[in-house]
C-alpha cells in the first residue's frame, strides 16, 4: 500500500506541475517536471533543517522505489518501444552510415575520453578512483538519453535529416551504451586480469547482436499476430506483450533488452502499421502509446528531480560535476566529428548540424539509473553525485537553450 501511495503522490505532483506548465510557463514538459522536482526536493531538504527527521521520512519513502530497477527493468522497455514507433525506416536508411557510426564508434570514443578526463581531474580535488570505474562513468554518461531527447526536441523545429540523426542515434547509442556499461561492470567486478580482448569482444557481441536478433524475432511475431486479426483492443495487448514479455525474455537470455525494444518498435511502427493494421487500429495503437509515453515520462522526470533527496552531495562533487558537464560536451562534439571525418559524411551533414547534435545530446534518467546500479564500493557515491549534477545541467541548461541554439545555427 505504501508503494501505491508513493506512486499516487508522484502522479498527482506530475499532473499538477504539468497543468501549471501548460497554463503558465509552456516550456518542454521534461524540463518543467524535473525543475519542479528539483525545487520540491530542495524544499524537503530545507524543511529538514527546521523539522528533525522530515527529510529522512521522505528519503525512506523514495527508497521504496529502486530507481535503477524501476527505470532499467520496467520503464525503459515501454519508453524505447514508444519512441521507436515514430522512426521511419526510409529516413533511417538515408542516415544509416552516420547513425551507426555515431552510436557505436562515437559512444566508444566518448566513453574513453570522458573516463580518462575524470581520472585526471579527480586528483586535483584529492579524489582518486581506479581507471576502470572512471571508464564505467564514461560509459553510463556518454549515451544521449532518447527519453530526454525526444521529449525536449519535439517542438524544436529541426530539419528532418538532423532530427533523424539525433533520434536514431540516441535510440541506438542508448542500447550500445548499456552494453558497454555491462561489459565494463563485469570487468570491474571480476578484475581486469580475468578478461582478455577476446572475452570482452564476445560479451559485447552477445549483448548487442543478441539484442538486435531478439528484437527482429519479437517484432516479426508481433507483426504476424496483428496481421492475422482485425481487433484493435487485442492488437494493443499484443504490442504490450511484445514489450513486457519480450524485455523479460531478453533479460533471461542475457541479451540487450533496450536494443531489442528499439528494433521491435521500428518494425511495428513501419511494417506493422503499413501491412498489419487497419486505420482504426493504427489510430488507437498510436494514441495508446503516445499517452503511455507521456505518463511514464512525467513520472520519470519528476522522480529524477526528487531523487536528489536520497543523494549525499559534497561541494567538491558539485564542482567536479559542473566541470565534467563541459568536458562531456567537448567529448560529445569530438565523438561526432571524428566518425564523420573518418567515414566521409561530414560535408553532407555539415559542422552546424554536428554542433546542434552536440548541444542537443541530452543526458537523462538512464545515466542516473546506471550509476545507481553500480555495486557497493567506495567510489559509488561520488559517481552517483557527479552523474546527478550532469543530468540536471543537461536537461535544464541544455534543454532550455537548445531551441535558441538551433535557430541561431540554422540561420
UniProtKB/TrEMBL annotation:
> Principal localization?
membrane
What is the species listed in this Swiss-Prot or TrEMBL entry? Chryseobacterium cheonjiense
**Classification of source organism:** Bacteria, Pseudomonadati, Bacteroidota, Flavobacteriia, Flavobacteriales
Descriptive protein name: Sodium:proton antiporter
Q: Which residues form a coiled coil?
A: none
- Which keywords describe this protein according to UniProt? Antiport, Cell membrane, Ion transport, Membrane, Sodium, Sodium transport, Transmembrane, Transmembrane helix, Transport
Share an example GO biological-process annotation for this protein: sodium ion import across plasma membrane
For this chain, the family text in UniProt reads:
Belongs to the monovalent cation:proton antiporter 1 (CPA1) transporter (TC 2.A.36) family.
| Record GO terms (molecular function) | potassium:proton antiporter activity; sodium:proton antiporter activity
Q: Where are the transmembrane segments?
A: 6-24, 31-50, 70-87, 99-122, 128-150, 171-191, 203-223, 295-313, 319-342, 354-376, 382-402
Q: Which GO terms describe its cellular component?
A: plasma membrane
InterPro entries tied to this protein:
Cation/H_exchanger_CPA1 (IPR018422), Cation/H_exchanger_TM (IPR006153)
Which residue numbers delimit the Cation/H+ exchanger transmembrane domain? 13-407
Q: How does it sit in the membrane?
A: Multi-pass membrane protein
Amino acid at each position: 500500500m505504501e508503494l501505491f501511495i508513493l506512486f499516487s503522490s508522484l502522479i498527482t505532483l506530475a499532473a499538477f506541475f504539468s497543468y501549471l506548465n501548460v497554463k503558465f510557463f509552456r516550456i518542454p514538459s521534461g524540463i518543467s517536471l524535473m525543475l519542479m522536482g528539483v525545487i520540491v526536493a530542495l524544499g524537503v531538504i530545507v524543511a529538514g533543517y527546521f523539522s528533525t527527521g522530515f527529510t529522512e521520512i521522505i528519503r525512506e519513502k523514495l527508497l521504496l522505489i529502486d530507481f535503477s530497477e524501476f527505470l532499467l527493468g520496467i520503464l525503459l522497455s515501454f519508453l524505447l518501444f514508444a519512441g521507436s514507433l515514430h522512426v521511419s525506416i526510409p529516413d533511417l536508411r538515408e542516415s544509416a552510415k552516420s547513425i551507426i557510426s555515431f552510436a557505436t564508434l562515437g559512444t566508444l570514443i566518448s566513453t574513453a575520453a570522458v573516463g580518462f578526463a575524470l581520472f585526471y581531474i579527480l586528483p586535483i580535488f584529492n579524489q582518486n578512483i581506479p581507471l576502470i570505474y572512471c571508464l564505467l562513468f564514461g560509459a553510463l554518461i556518454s549515451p544521449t538519453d532518447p527519453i530526454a531527447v525526444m521529449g525536449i526536441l519535439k517542438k524544436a523545429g529541426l530539419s528532418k535529416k538532423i532530427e533523424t540523426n539525433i533520434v536514431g542515434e540516441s535510440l541506438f547509442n542508448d542500447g550500445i551504451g548499456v552494453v558497454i556499461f555491462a561489459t565494463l561492470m563485469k570487468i570491474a567486478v571480476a578484475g581486469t586480469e580475468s578478461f582478455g580482448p577476446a572475452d570482452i569482444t564476445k560479451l559485447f557481441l552477445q549483448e548487442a547482436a543478441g539484442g538486435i536478433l531478439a528484437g527482429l524475432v519479437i517484432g516479426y511475431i508481433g507483426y504476424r499476430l496483428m496481421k492475422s486479426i482485425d481487433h484493435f483492443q487485442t492488437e494493443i495487448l499484443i504490442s504490450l506483450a511484445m514489450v513486457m514479455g519480450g524485455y523479460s525474455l531478453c533479460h533471461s537470455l542475457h541479451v540487450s533488452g533496450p536494443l531489442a525494444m528499439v528494433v521491435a518498435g521500428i518494425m511495428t511502427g513501419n511494417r506493422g502499421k503499413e501491412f498489419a493494421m487497419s486505420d482504426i487500429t493504427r489510430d488507437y495503437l498510436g494514441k495508446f502509446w503516445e499517452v503511455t509515453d507521456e505518463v511514464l515520462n512525467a513520472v520519470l522526470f519528476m522522480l529524477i528531480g526528487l531523487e536528489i533527496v536520497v543523494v549525499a552531495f559534497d561541494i567538491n562533487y558539485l564542482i567536479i560535476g559542473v566541470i565534467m558537464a563541459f568536458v562531456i560536451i567537448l567529448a560529445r562534439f569530438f565523438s561526432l566529428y571524428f566518425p564523420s571525418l573518418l567515414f566521409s559524411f561530414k560535408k553532407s551533414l555539415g559542422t552546424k548540424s554536428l554542433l546542434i547534435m552536440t548541444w542537443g545530446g541530452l543526458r537523462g534518467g538512464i545515466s542516473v539509473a546506471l550509476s545507481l546500479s553500480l555495486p557497493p564500493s567506495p567510489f559509488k557515491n561520488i559517481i552517483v553525485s557527479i552523474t546527478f549534477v550532469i543530468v540536471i545541467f543537461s536537461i535544464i541548461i541544455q534543454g532550455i537553450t537548445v531551441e535558441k541554439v538551433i535557430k541561431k545555427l540554422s540561420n
